[in-house]
Each structure stands twice: as structure tokens, then as C-alpha cells.
Amino acid sequence: MPVRKAVIPAAGFGTRFLPATKAQPKEMLPIVDTPIIQYVVEEAIASGIEDILIITGRGKRTIEDHFDRSIELETFLERNHRDSLLSTVRDVGNLANVFFVRQKEQLGLGHAVLQARHHIGNEPFAVLLGDEIFFGARPALSQLMDVYDQVGGSVVGVMEVSADEVQRYGVIKPEKVNEGLYLATDLVEKPATHEAPSRMAICGRYVLDPAIFDILETLPPGKNGEIQLTDAIRILGKWQPIYACEIDARRYDVGDKLGYLQATVEIALEREDLGEAFRDYLTNLLLTRSEVSR
């Protein structure tokens, strides 16, 4: 069965970006002029996804508003002949079939994914975390979906990280199948550096069998007292093979302040309307700071 549906968990508090996220979702923070979550939705669409469910929570209404039409704004732009902006605004509202459900309690990523059970039904589905964005020749999710089509089993996206970073991720024990593809013989959520089975970290993209929902339904809390998706996938791996696809793309953890700044700078430099002027500004800034520090 093809993968047609995707789930984007976006219900977290965004504590790493307080106070900015006290009154707005972290997923709506802009990378230049585009909200983080729009990049994630666009990746899903570019991968062939037809139906997107965003898991939200209290205080996340602006995400719903962003993917809805804004008649007043459209009327204003049309009246003032702002045709380019009008097209941009309308395009956002027509990106895909986007649906929303609330996670009423913050009980972890696994619990957030569980909220999608009735929407997904008995189909394989994708999960894209709302605070990681990827840029490459092919969409990151599309790479996982190709693997799923080949092997017919659940697939997690992975990237190699440094030894001191493994404690921030779910980490797999890999058995190489071929270049860039592994069998995940074990998975550990946020291991200590000396306990990590490898440096291959799960990085926010999944294609999952719907059997995961039965596991999440009864899964006890794990690391940090939360229901962990990694723990559920580990149990699923006892019944069916779990594959890991090494994603070929640039990844930004935009839920982290440094990652957010890196994404903003690098994406701005690649923009036709900003890149040259911004590059000149950064060059002059570095020269000026260098002279001051002498």
C-alpha cells in the first residue's frame, strides 16, 4: 500500500525558544519570511503526500490560521495590486489537504503520534518532526518512501552525529544492507555516550506501519517520563524488520537556537532577492569586527 498520509507533531511547548514561544508556536518562527512548519509541509507535498495531519495543542491556533485562507488580507492585497504577495498568500492556503487534531496533554512524541490513529486508519504513514528541516536534491521524506517501496517495512531516517550528541537522539544499532541503508537491529532513546550502540541518530523522519498504534496504546512512559516513539519502534522491531535510511541532505535542527540561526543565514544566502546583499553585509561585518579586535 502506498504512503499517502503524513503526521506532523507540533504540540510541544518550545521551551528552548522562550520567551519568544510564550505566546506563539515555535513552528511559526520564520526562517527569513517562511514559517518553519511550512518548510516541513512543503517537503511532505514534494514527496507525494496527499493528506497531512498536524498534531497541535493549546496556544497553537496560529498554525491552523496559517494554512487557512485569509479573505481580509487577500482583499487588501488585491485592492492594492500586490499581485505577487497575493499569489504567495493564496498558495499557502492551497498547499495540501491539511487537518488538525489536538494533543490535550504533553505526554511525549509517541503520545502525539497516537493522536493520529483514527485519521490514519490501517495505512502506512509518514511522520515529520516540526522542528527539523532538510534541503537537498531530493526531499528527505521521499528518500525514506523509496526505501519503504523497496522493502515494505518501517523506515527511520538517520544521520551520523558526533559522540557527544548521541544523548540528544534516538540511536540505532545498524547492520548494513547496502550503501546508505541499514537494518536497525536495536534502538535506544537518548543513550549516554558510552552506552550508544552507534553514532547513527534518528533525525525526525519516519515511515511507519500502522501496527505502531497498538504498541503506543499500552506503552508505559520511558525516558523523561514520556511515551517515546523510539521505544515503540523498538518493540515493533521484534515483529517486523525496521530499516534505517541515511538521509542525503543538509539538516537543520531549528528547534535549537544555533541550528535556527544557521538555517536562517544559509537560506538567506541562497535567496536570489537577498543573497548578494546579505553576503556583502556579512563580509563587511566580519572585516569591521576583525579590525576592531586588533
UniProtKB/TrEMBL annotation:
Q: Which SUPFAM superfamilies match?
A: Nucleotide-diphospho-sugar transferases
Determine the domain of life of the protein's source.
Bacteria
Q: Which InterPro entries match?
A: GalU_uridylyltTrfase_bac/arc (IPR005771), NTP_transferase_dom (IPR005835), Nucleotide-diphossugar_trans (IPR029044)
Going by the UniProt record, its keywords in alphabetical order are:
Nucleotidyltransferase, Transferase
Q: Which Pfam families match?
A: NTP_transferase
Catalyzed reactions per annotation: alpha-D-glucose 1-phosphate + UTP + H(+) = UDP-alpha-D-glucose + diphosphate
Q: What is this protein called?
A: UTP--glucose-1-phosphate uridylyltransferase
Q: Which organism is it from?
A: Symbiobacterium thermophilum
